[in-house]
Amino acid sequence: xxxxxxxxxxxxxxxxxxxxxxxxxxxxxxxxxxxxxxxxxxxxxxxxxxxxxxxxxxxxxxxxxxxxxxxxxxxxxxxxxxxxxxxxxxxxxxxxxxxxxxxxxxxxxxxxxxxxxxxxxxxxxxxxxxxxxxxxxxxxxxxxxxxxxxxxxxxxxxxxxxxxxxxxxxxxxxxxxxxxxxxxxxxxxxxxxxxxxxxxxxxxxxxxxxxxxxxxxxxxxxxxxxxxxxxxxxxxxxxxxxxxxxxxxxxxxxxxxxxxxxx
Amino acid sequence: xxxxxxxxxxxxxxxxxxxxxxxxxxxxxxxxxxxxxxxxxxxxxxxxxxxxxxxxxxxx
Lengths: 263, 60
Prior knowledge:
The complex is a heterodimer.
Chain A: H1 22-54, H2 68-95, H3 100-130, H4 138-157, H5 163-177, H6 180-190, H7 210-262
Helix pairs in contact in A: 1-7, 2-3, 2-4, 2-5, 2-7, 3-4, 3-7, 4-5, 4-6
Chain B: H1 4-39, H2 41-58
């Protein structure tokens, strides 16, 4: 059997670098953004109204269980957002994808916001159920660590005069911090925690009544689309701002050259 | 409804935070788009070409 040695050297036709062209990204994002925003708004609204007024109260927790329809999607997006930053960091460090650093930078504040929502709604749920706003439980503590990792990533990117160095340092922090994600997921299995165990698993049926599961699925999908819409809009703005900076710098350079020629 | 203040506070947070991010992102995007349209020579060339085409079509 003969193997074409040059085949593996040929540039792949369909990969993420297709979206490295800012103009192409702006066009694609402009098409996708309204669908993400409208879909997210509709699904989140349906899920929240359903969860608040039509889903049953829990036999033990009463109506406090309705906090779940905000808390669980926020928790999912806190982890998913950081996983997104880690994926962008790999794309930046390994493949030097030009939009990966910008994407990681724009995901950071949104992910931190959703992590804060997760922590605060968890606290609001914990007070009536556990009698305390906060306990140093493994799940709560690992999510708090995730929040600090987000803040560290945001601060580190902005800490350097040279943005490339900031992006590099942020990417390394994001990859090291990604170790917190499996700790968050399995903390309720590895340690005895006050936080309840996992409701969802890959292999088993969810431990939740179906009339509570549906609104939760709606809010989770809806918030995910809203998150994607916000990040896409921020990334679109960041790409345009980079082009504005480049154009203004080019004008300054041209003016400088013209003045030197005139002198 | 039991525990209403806790549930209401959670829902408020779940609406206000994403809405705030969305509004800020939308305003930033609009601002950047307007600034880019004002200085981008490629956009200016495209607009000039579109004007020229429409004038050519108007001519008898």
